[in-house]
Protein 1
Amino acid sequence: MGSGNPAMRVARLALLLLIACAAQADAAEYMNLRGGKFASVLPADAKNADVVVAPFRLRTVPVTNAEFLAFVQAHPQWRRDRVAQVFAESRYLSQWADADTLGTNARPDQPVTQVSWFAARAYCQSENARLPFWNEWEFAAAADATHADARSDPTWRAGILAWYAQPNQPLAVIGGAANFYGVRDLHNLVWEWVDDFNALLVASDSRDQNDPDRLKFCGAGALAMRDLDHYAVLMRIAMLSSLKAANTTANLGFRCAKDGTGDNR
Amino acid sequence: MKSTFMKLALAASIAIIFGSPAVAATASDTATTQQGTNAAKGSQYGDFGPPQGDPIHAVLTSPPQVPPPIHRDKPAKVIVELEVIEKDMPISEGVSYRFWTFGGTVPGSFIRVRQGDTVEFHLKNNPNNKMPHNIDLHGVTGPGGGAASSSTAPGHESQFTFKALNQGIFIYHCATAPVGMHIANGMYGLFLVEPPEGMPAVDHEYYVMQGDFYTTGKYREKGAQPFDMEKAIAEQPTYVVFNGREGSLTGDNALTAKTDQTVRMFIGNGGPNLVSSFHIIGEIFDRVQSEGGTLAQENVQTTLVPSGGAAIVQFHTEVPGSYVLVDHSIFRAFNKGALGILKVDGPENKAIYSGKEVDSVYLGDRPNPNPNAATQAAHAASTGKLTLEDQIKAGKELFTGTCSICHQANGEGLPGVFPPLAKSSFIAADPKKSIEILLHGLTGKVTVNGQEYNSTMPPMIQINDDDAANILTYVLNSWGNPGGYVQAAEVAKVRAAPPAK
């Protein structure tokens, strides 16, 4: 499903109309991240080049059930009983007791899951924000508590990897330890939508005509990845690559981002 | 990036091997000559036209069961529905592991179709799962073996359709990045494409699949054991098991057959790393389709099953008893779990295998064998004419065969390791105690001639009373020991008594 196909364009247009008048108090906390040259596992030229991440601001924690509930109350077109099917599949917000009640299976301070990309995007616009791009998310998630880029630390990597071997439920609440940038819960809580999730499969340089299916099957991923030891990141990409924009899963949430000034850190 | 280029080149050459009609035709011509059937022909001959009749839902079975044979003479549309389930299961007694499974078992459900069938494949990813998954069936002709069309997020379902053009036994596995981890967590199974004429009838068909597993804890360390990526990369598995857990095919779970039956086993190897040297102790495979291919090898002892490959083995049972399935890379069998049992019931067949007929002493090669001395002594003992000289002569011969290996021919032993018998303070203190030591062994600290020894002498229960008496008499009368003799009756008495603590 490419971002350029007609169905998607229609959907995006409709989405813009739906959220045109969205306005909500901007209470969530965002951190400034300087950005810069960054060794993404998906190199800029599909070989070895660093990507350049522009300064941006990132929400410190994922959006919670309570926050998303407030959003659907303000924007009832995103209630699960009213949302258009092209924007969210049937499992959308199904962990909630009702269309406007969290109930016992969804704690207010748990990250909201079972949200589609469309819904996540609409929410972020209500915070005058957007979804982060993959490289922004990856940039922020490379940090541990004391280093901007901790990815070469095998202990830290093993700790992240361990989350993937744990049972799915129940979901923890937000508020994990802050990383180098003051951002929390990038690891060990939920998968997170990124704005360009469906571009991860496409060769980033059209000149070398890489196989656009390269991440979809055995061995293919190994051809395009720069650092094959970043299994946790690999799994993120594999997860995002398996999704369509209307999909939701029990472990998939999101946080928002904004363009930044880079005047901090 | 050189490695990228090499992998691409490799992929291209694989594509040539599988894709080239010329190569396929050569292989199939040979097969046709051997088998006199079109069944062996390759993918270009495997299309028997559009599916006929109503769609059929495939019967899926959990290991070690195999779905029933297909008795159909026309291609059909076969619907396969397979669900991916991530769940905790035991990998060994008291050890649990978080498996990722096709159909809730490791290996995954067995799928059986007929060559030429059109398979409509539904891959479902359970909503409670955390990971995306897909499936790469080695029996599919098409990019990624279906994986490119089946990447599926939790709570979703993918569908793709393929025609099973090549017959044989094929692996399927998950190919979502990181592929190695998905396979290491148990995501593999077998996919059988029967020849159009079916397979010869047998009494039993079984499904056995080997896999290697990597846990942070040691082998049999109790509790929930997480996956260890470092060990997986180093290819140093904690467990190598059949059918997903140690003990899956032993005890009450053992495979069964009767004597005078034919058994066919589909043996797969999911890996992710190790190649299996599959062997059944006490059986010879009458027929092996190694690598799952069409041509059969006959009279095979051990067959190599590659990681990501499979074989069909067949044999006939003659003698009752337990037959042990092993990976004959044998430490894996006894120290990592790769062990299963086939229990064969039925009447004994002594003409083919007698069971144990003789259990007698074998003394090994003696430096200066004097076959007569011990025999003469035994004869003398039976007639009551045994002299001290006879005993010493026989004892010397016997001592040279067994005892001298440790205590040395001159009775000096090895300082600090094996105590001396020569001028031994220990023997002098209580000569008769040596009978007990010979029969029951001796473990722990002893002080001999002022030096402490701390080692183990195993019980020498295989030495009979006469021989033991002669050996001890020889020792008592040699190397400055106090002399005297030991009688066979004394040995018998000690032997009957429980070992002193």
Protein 2
Amino acid sequence: MLLIHCPYCDETLPEPEFTYAGEAHVARPADPMALSDEEWRDFLFVRSNPRGTHYERWRHINGCGRFFNAIRDTVTDKFAMTYRAGEPRPNLDALKEAAE
Amino acid sequence: MTQYSAFALLKNALSGHKNWREQWPDAQPKAEYDVIIVGAGGHGLGAAYYLAKEHGITNVAVIDKGWLGGGNTGRNTTIIRSNYLYDESARLYDHALDLWEDLSQDLNYNVMYSKRGVMMLAHNVHDVQSFKRHIHSNRLNGVDNRWLSPEDAKVFCPPLNISRDARYPVVGAALQMRAGTARHDAVAWGYARAAAARGVDIIQNCPVIAIRRGPDGAVQGVDTAKGFIRAKKVAVSAAGNTSVVMQSAGLRMPLESYPLQALVSEPIKPVFPCVVMSNTVHAYISQSDKGELVIGSGTDQYVSYSQRGGLPLIEHTVAAICEVFPIFSRMRMLRKWGGIVDVTPDRSPILGKMPVKGLYVNCGWGTGGFKATPGAGHLLAWTVAKDEPHPINAPFTLERFTTGRLIDEAAAAAVAH
């Protein structure tokens, strides 16, 4: 079972408190009327689905109820970090270097 | 290839079973093939077999990063059925069912296809309406499916709890008699043996690093752990790893990979005559010929390649099984495992040509790929050999996510399947 850190509650809690909410940083189109069919496809359906580092959204549904973002390795399922919604995408390599 | 028969069995019994030959040779890659298939699961091996048998293309390699049949082919709950709602899906899965019928004879390998019937339980008004709609739709498409009262369901599957005060009351069931189970490993082995006998190379423990494309964009071959292998046609049948493989050819796919779990109990005497599925409480169960109860769980909610899943799902599934079948409440579970399934937004597969010349894909089978094994192999072989889709798989394009012509089995069943 995953243990997930909610950046709002500042607590690490078991997975059933949370729901997964898909890939993070998939921005809603600013001007939907201008999009081609291919761009709609990319926004609605195409996902990066990486084997490794994944930026994803979670919601603390049985807690504070808020959405936040996380970086998780999809092979080990280990979280690198979680951060609040709206914050820019962290550079994981820079963070690792800073930690070393 | 030595033909298997009662006579061969008797002959080998007399010599103490010491003279059985290997079923297929472990091949090393040649410099060039006509067709390379990435992924040696049932689907990929099936495609190789039908390429050789029906299209005369024998200069084929099937490459796998692990061992043959070690991915989802060896990790599923072996259920076979074709009671899908939409016309396109019904044709696709029923095509596979037609091939299952005489697969053992075709391959000279006992895949233990058992038409024991799949019964889907209805627990509420929505289930009743949805299943009856499925039944009518199926019968219009020539797919067998019929409605059972709770009492009839109990007769068909005696361990079922149809008490009115059960937590998940059974108010009826849909039964497909032609559905059932097969021995999953034997399907991969049977296809491997039959394909190898026709000249197909099966290359194991050889991860594909990238699909190489030439200056004109067309496929040139694959870079693997054992070096570059040239081929003008590459078919990817890599289940959960499809996104990763396709990314190397510069294609982003409408797929997400999730762990799907299953578990088995200790073996017991025959007690469970059929397959029972309950979409609403999300549990499905059958008994293997070895005697284990084979129980399918759901997909984890998050994207993962870990090939294991979370315990909360197992707990949920087992709790549901105990409610529907109180007889099993004291049983011990032996082991659980996970496979990585590639799920499309509409829960229908993608099977056809890619926008890259010489590249074909068979993916997106989600949580229900095993049942389609012979059909997927057969249609992929057709598509690769003729460079155009068979009428059955023609609707299952990648382009449907651009045009919006989805085959929305996800909405039809309201669960993963």
